[in-house]
C-alpha cells in the first residue's frame, strides 16, 4: 500500500545528485542528501533508506542524464521511474528554483500521483535513434560546409558555369584546381574543402551502418511497414520509426497526434471557446517528416507507384489496406479543405495530422480494432 512506501525524488545533474525522501505518514521530506554524481554512493544512500523505512519508489526527470541511472537502479532491484519534465505541475506564483526544492517537489508529487512517467527505451532502440540522429546532424553539417565553400568562392569573383549542377565530379575538379589571388583566401578555400571532404567521408560511413540497420537490423520490419505509406521513403521511415520506436505506448491515434504537436491549441473558459494554431509540442522532427510526407500525398493523384507496389509485397494485408486508404483519404481531404477556402499551409497541417493517425495504426503489432489487439 502507498502508506508503507517511501517516495524518493532525485534531481540529477552531471556533477551532482540531490535526493529527498518522503517517508510514510510524513508531510515533509525527512532525509535529504546531496551527493556527487557517483552511482555507487547513491546506491549506498538508497540502501540506508531501505533499511530505515522499507519499500522505496524512486523518480527523476528525463534530461541530459538519459536513462543510464534508471537502468543502473533497476538492475539492482530498485523501483525507479523517469518523469516527463514538461508535464510536471508548476505553481504560477512560485519564483524559486533550487536543486533541493526540485527534489522535494518530485517526491511530494510522486506520492500524490501527479507526475507523468515516460516509457524508457531499450538500449538497442536508443542506439538506433542515436545513429539516425547522427546521420541527420552530419547531413546538416555537409550542407553547411558546402554553402561555406560556395560563398567563399563567389566572394572572390569565381562562379562555376560549366554545368548547371554543383558538387558533381567536374565541379569538384574545378574547385580543387581553383587558385585565388591572395594567400589567405587560398588557404581558407583549401581548409574548407578539406573539412567538406572529411564530413562527406564520415557521412558515407554512417550511411553504410544506416542502410544495414534499415534493411537488416532490428528496425527493418518497422521501417518496411512505414514505407508502405506514400511519402515515406527509407530515410523518413527510419526517422519516424526511431523516434516513435513503439507505437503501443500511445493508447490511441489522438495521443500520438498530441505527441507530435499537430493538434490545435485551445484556451476555453467560462463558456468561451478559443482555438488557435497547432501546439507544436512534442517531437519536432516527427512533425517535420509528417508534413513533408503530406505534401507528397497531395501533389499527385492517388496512384500506386512501382516502388510502392514493390514495398507492399510480403506485408500484412491490413497494412496494405491502410496504405491504400491513406493515399486516397489524404489527397481528397486536402483538396476538400482548399476548396472550402483554407490556406494550403493550414490544409497540409490537417492532412499531416490525419497521416499521423495512419502512422500510429501501422506501428501497432496487429490491426487496430482486431480481436487480438483488443485483447
Task: Return the string of H and E elements.
Answer: EEEHEHEHHHHHHHEEHHHHH
Write down the overall mean pLDDT: 92
Number of DSSP-assigned strands: 7
How would a crystallographer describe the biggest sheet?
A: 5 strands, mixed
Backbone CA Rg:
26 Å
Number of domains: 3
Helix content: 55-70%
Ends distance: 28 Å
Q: Looking across the biggest beta sheet, what order are the strands in?
A: 3-2-1-4-5
The general outline is globular
What's the total helix number? Answer: 14
% residues in beta strands = 5-15%
Poorly predicted tracts of residues: 371-375
What does this protein structure show overall?
This protein has 375 residues and is α/β, with parallel strands linked by helices. It folds into 3 domains: 2-112, Nucleotidyltransferase, domain 5 (2-Layer Sandwich); 123-218, no CATH class; 221-374, no CATH class. It has helices at 39-53, 68-75, 99-112, 123-155, 169-177, 183-216, 220-226, 234-244, 253-259, 284-299, 306-312, 317-339, 344-362, 371-374, and strands at 6-12, 16-22, 31-36, 56-61, 80-83, 264-266, 275-278. Strands 3-2-1-4-5 form a 5-stranded mixed beta sheet. Strands 6-7 form a two-stranded antiparallel ribbon. The longest helix is centred in the middle third of the chain and has 34 residues, at 183-216. It is globular and about 80 Å long. It starts with 5 loop residues before the first strand and ends with a helix.
